[in-house]
Amino acid sequence: MRAITVSDHDAGVAGFSLTELPYPQAADNDVIVRVHAAGFTRGELDWPHTWIDHAGRDRTPSVPGHELSGVVAELGYGTTGLSVGQRVFGLADWARNGSLAEYTAVDARNLAPLPVDIDHTVAAALPISGLTAWQALFDHGRLAAGQTVLIHGVVGGVGSIAAQLAREVGARVIGTGRAADRAQALELGAHAFVDLDAEKLEDVGEVDVVFDVIGGDVLARSADLVRAGGTLVTIAEPPKNRPYDGRALFFLVEPDRARLADLAARVRDGRLKPVVGAVLPLAEAAAAFAPGKRIPGKTILRVAED
């Protein structure tokens, strides 16, 4: 099968190589998925398990990518709840070969059934972005109706879903980004927008929840914006500054089959529209994620046709 592999941490996405690899083997409770569409997160090249397995052994050349949508091609021993030929989407395991391949082995618990009326390219934009947004806002941030949330990077793959989810529950949404992002942020449901290059972040005032995907100075300055009892949530890096009377936390997304199914239901009835920025073939993976290439929304690689 064809797959994108990486072997050199320092090379970044420039080290992506389109390679022929053996067909994967299904472990107990696995499924083999014929991948139709896949997502990649730039930060994963800095994750330890991109390069080593759970035992700490080098596993390069490794296949990156952890978001996928496709069709079940094979069931491992003991696998239940899914069937061969079924459309599925979800998360590939962190410490195993990922989704930028024609076939990948995935723990069945990390996959949810995909309705026939949702395109694979849309479904592949949901797993990490959708679960991250939900867990940040509601599991960790405890966002509720009538509260205000500040979402940094609001037109990105994660931020765009977070804005829609927050607006749906009745929260006031303030988004941040660059000047060119303003119109799209408002279309996504943001009530207000801050241009981080030209406007003062501190003018936002106090908010109940800050959800940060940027890190650095933006994250550090955000702690002072959290009102008493509020929460600063980030996926960029552990926060160094904490709200005076609130919580600050860094988290990693966790698989959740039930929540994936819930997100898919929202897509079906029009309550949620993942922003797919570009759809490119697997062979163009390096160019798709090259440094400096900025496309609002989630870039998806199409691996196979329906």
From TrEMBL:
Gene Ontology molecular function terms on file? oxidoreductase activity
Identify the SMART domains for this entry: PKS_ER (SM00829)
Q: Name one Pfam family in it.
A: ADH_zinc_N_2
Q: Which residues form the signal peptide?
A: none
- Return the InterPro entries for the record: ADH-like_N, ER, GroES-like_sf, NAD(P)-bd_dom_sf, YIM1/Zinc_Alcohol_DH_Fams
The UniProt record lists the Enoyl reductase (ER) domain at: 12-301
Name used for this protein in its record: NADPH:quinone reductase
Protein source organism: Mycobacterium florentinum
